[in-house]
Amino acid sequence: MGSVGEAGELVGTPRGPARVYRTAPAPAQAPAWAARRGLLLLGHGAGGGVAAPDLVGVTTAASAAGFEVVRVEQPYRVAGRRAPAPAGQLDEAWLAVVDAVRPDDGIPLIVGGRSSGARVACRTAAAARAAAVVCLAFPVHPPGRPERSRLPELDAVTVPVLVVQGERDPFGMPPPAPGRTVHRIPAANHALRTDLPALGHAVVEWLRATLSPTLSRGLSRGLSRGLSR
Q: Is 145 inside a domain boundary?
């Protein structure tokens, strides 16, 4: 089901076990303190899973750029249910996974996901102590219901946010804002399948630009740790 990286492993949460799929950074032969630029944690959409093409595309691009990527399957999916759990339960399970996989070597933690997973990442960014948030196909509102806006979830995030959105997404297009970059994918809908290489490139370039100061500090600490061994 994961399709990229290692086999999934179960992680206990208050809402039942979640499953995580880890993809190591490249080049694999480099020391861990030199290779990892950050840990990118990605959640899936409400009705889909971690094998969604956009999640896989971003995982491939980010790992090739030196980021470790962990895709998270929520407990309701692990239990075989299609209907998503309530928002509070999704957030609770997500934060339990964050605690289980959080880096302990000074590299930045970036949280994100597609659609519903992006909403979870935004709502919990502060509690997760995330350095940045990556949203793929953020569902601004239900199709045809612009009055039911979820923009407050995006607006509440206080760290840098990237939103990658298809220009034909029926769930709407969020506006740019201070601290928020919106990258449009031409001709793409909510699935973001039309140009996966462009999607991966957009995410990686934004991560590199946004996290440069944090990466320098983290790599300096890692280098000192590596040389002291």
A: yes
